[in-house]
Specification:
340 residues; alpha/beta; inorganic pyrophosphatase (n-terminal core); Diaminopimelate Epimerase, Chain A, domain 1; 2 domains; six-stranded parallel β-sheet; 12 helices; 39% helix; EC 3.1.3.7; DHHA1_dom; Bifunctional oligoribonuclease/PAP phosphatase NrnA; Oligoribo/pAp-PDE_c-di-AMP_PDE; DHH_sf
Amino acid sequence: MSQARTLYDLLGDADSLAIVCHNNPDPDCLSSALALGRIAAAAGVDERRILYSGRISHQQNRAFVNLLDLDLQPFDPEVVHDRPDGALLAFVDHAIPGANNEVPPGTPVDVVIDHHPAEGIDARFVDHREAVGATATILAEYVAELDVEVDATLATALTFAIRRETLGFLRGATPAEYEAVASLHDRTDRDLLRRLSTPSVSGETVDAIADAIRNRVVRGGTLLTHVGRTNERDALPQAADYLATLEGVETAVVFGIVDDAIHLSGRSTDPRINLGDALGDAFDDVGSAGGHREMAGGQIPLGIFADYTTDDATLVDIVNRLVSNRVFAALGLDDGGDED
């Protein structure tokens, strides 16, 4: 029996389905949740909820939710406590309770569909494919195989997510992504797709990216920079995407202080390194970090640093030294090099 049919049969025995997105969900996660909800509806599950935690602050993510009119609810801890028989819990685009989500570690999970590197995944149904470029690719395969009705909203959501997750098929794309988008082509709303691709950018985001450009340090082909303290968490991956295109730069890592944590985002085209593994090695003892070979991120609680000083400039300087030392050491660049 295929994975799609196995999932469909599992959902057919359920009374309800709670689909939990990862923190600060992006279009890959959101479109996958939408598709899984449609599959559950086709299987006869009447009660379905998509839950998220964190913020939907990136301008494309906000546009995605608003233009597609997605029905999202804030994460409710009661959903995962004392679930009755027939109440299923699903993860899409993430895999482990407590890792990039608000679900308590050790919570039983029924469905996991993901493409990110992860170990120790435990669920009744698991489709974990690190080789594909997007979780939305897997869900697009499912809806095609199960003959689930695909309207313009779902087709456009999945298509946009696959395009964005692969940077327009330039990062991590496989034949599966092309096949998935081709299967959705006739039902995709091209005008809506254009509007999703070109949302307005806030002045705060532009300022944060400007700070990243100004604070950059380059060693060899690696660029490391920060945006200081910011409320624009989603400016970090945008800055990383842009700075990774600079001449001579193969790896770009951007970090900033958001609330009570240090957030990192990195991009790499260097075939000699796996950026997800490198950031994991650098920060797993003090926080959580990881991702793919070409795209990775992390989050480190400020902890004692938050109590050390109330001066943001001093705090940023301390964090800059800590993060720089660890990143450059993990990439074998701790002996110094050219700086810009």
